[in-house]
Amino acid sequence: MNSKKEKRPNHRPREMEGGKRRNVYIDAESWRLAQELGDGNGSEGIRRAIQIASKRPTPA
Asked: Roughly how many angstroms between the first and final C-alpha of the chain, as a whole number?
C-alpha cells in the first residue's frame, strides 16, 4: 500500500511486525470489554489489556 488513504479490503487485518493470525475463544462480556478497550477493535483491546496487565507502556 503506497498511500495512507488507500483502504484495505474489509477482510484483511492491519499488518504488524511479528503479527500472526490467532483465534481466541472468549465470552461475550470479555469481547465487549476488549472492543471497548480497543476503541471498537477487539484485537487491539486484547493487546491493550495485556499491556495493562503486564504494566508495560503501550507502544506509540
From this structure: 21
Q: How many CB atoms lie within 10 A of CB 19?
A: 10
Residues of the chain with pLDDT under 50: 1
Burial of 31 (0-12, 13-18, 19+ CB in 10 A): middle
Residue 3: per-residue pLDDT: 52
Lookup result for grid cell 490467532: 22
Q: Which residues contact 41 (CB under 8 A, 6 or more apart)?
A: 35
